[in-house]
Amino acid sequence: MSGDRLDGLSVRDVRVSFDGFTAVDGVSLEVPAGDIRFLIGPNGAGKTTLVDAITGLVRATGSVRFGDHELLGRPVHRISRLGIGRTFQTSAVFEELSVLQNLDIAAGARRSLATLARRRREVPDEVAAALETIGLAERAGHPAGTLAHGQKQWLEIGMLLVQDARLLLLDEPVAGMSHEERDATGALLETVSQDRTVVVIEHDMDFLRRFARSVTVLHAGRVLSEGTVAQVQADPRVQEVYLGHPVDAGSAPTGREA
Ligand SMILES: Nc1ncnc2c1ncn2[C@@H]1O[C@H](COP(=O)(O)OP(=O)(O)OP(=O)(O)O)[C@@H](O)[C@H]1O
């Protein structure tokens, strides 16, 4: 859908400190183009802070490259223009505006002033495509505030799609969702990852098992383990951190037990 090339994310030795406390302590990870990488770890592991560093919200040392571009040191809006899109745990949609208007405003952030000045009666192609992808075409005219919780998350993802984000960083996208909404969200991630790279911060282990293509486990600001879901689940260090002790192969960390 984006039409642009598929890029991967390369994080090298990234550190973030707050008043002497090191929240991210030399993290390196490679997310190949088109991956759905889940970033997990106990509360306070540094997941959100790492994403804050990637998106320019906190100062960091080291290197973060997306495709050919170094992201560290650039302001937030420049990083966004390089195709890095992010959702937060709290919804950022305009509740009183329609689904279509929310997407149109998000798309407008990419448009030239001349294009914006021209009054258009038709729905722009990228907005129509995003409406289909996120499954909200039939709700296009409804106020975003009337959407179900899951639908609001999908609208936010749609807003990233119309901005032509090629790296999606999603913070707990299925928190508070029903089973059906989780399934639909997983299917949406699979669709968008066909021509984008996706990183998901998530505590929901059932969702992870079903939809992660790869997993990085953070603990105390460092990478504790990395690999496929099966490899990470079988790692005694991961079991130790989540459960306090290693478990038999086949068992796995669940939920927010840390
Ligand atoms: N602005 C800040 N100032 C000081 N400390 C901070 C700040 N932001 C985060 N921290 C600390 O950095 C550590 C990592 O926090 P972070 O929110 O990145 O963890 P997390 O893995 O995302 O946790 P959670 O799963 O609870 O969201 C925590 O100890 C947190 O208290």
Which shape, going by the Cα principal axes? globular
The share of residues in extended strands comes to 15-25%
CATH topology of the largest domain: Rossmann fold
Could you say which small molecules are bound to this protein? adenosine-5'-triphosphate
- Tally of domains: 2
- What does the largest sheet look like? 6 strands, mixed
Mean pLDDT reading: 89
Number of strands: 10
The gyration radius over C-alpha positions equals: 19 Å
What is the string of SSEs from the N terminus onward? Answer: EEEHEEHEHHHHEHEHEEHH
In CATH, the architecture of the largest domain is: 3-Layer(aba) Sandwich
Total helices: the number is 10
CATH class of the largest domain: Alpha Beta
Runs in which pLDDT lies below 50 for 5 or more consecutive residues are: 254-258
Question: Biggest sheet, strands in spatial order?
Answer: 6-7-8-3-9-10
The CATH superfamily of the largest domain bears the name P-loop containing nucleotide triphosphate hydrolases
* Share of helix, binned: 25-40%
N-to-C CA distance? 38 Å
Structural class, please? alpha/beta
GO cellular component, one term: plasma membrane
Keywords: ATP-binding, Nucleotide-binding, Transport
GO molecular function: ATP binding; ATP hydrolysis activity
Protein name: Urea ABC transporter ATP-binding protein UrtD
What does this structure look like?
This protein is an alpha/beta fold and about 260 residues long. The chain folds into two domains: about 150 residues, 3-Layer(aba) Sandwich (Rossmann fold), CATH 3.40.50; about 70 residues, no CATH class. Helices cover about 35% and strands about 25% of the residues. It has ten helices and ten strands. The strands form two sheets. It has a six-stranded mixed β-sheet, sandwiched between helices. A four-stranded antiparallel β-sheet has the order 2-1-4-5, covered by helices on one side. The longest helix has 14 residues. The chain is globular, with a radius of gyration of 19 Å. The chain starts with 8 loop residues before the first strand and ends in a 15-residue tail after the last helix. The C terminus is likely disordered. Bound molecules: adenosine-5'-triphosphate. The site of adenosine-5'-triphosphate has 11 residues, from strand 2 and helix 1. This is Urea ABC transporter ATP-binding protein UrtD. It holds the Pfam family BCA_ABC_TP_C. One of its GO terms (cellular component) is plasma membrane. GO terms for molecular function: ATP binding; ATP hydrolysis activity. Keywords: ATP-binding, Nucleotide-binding, Transport.
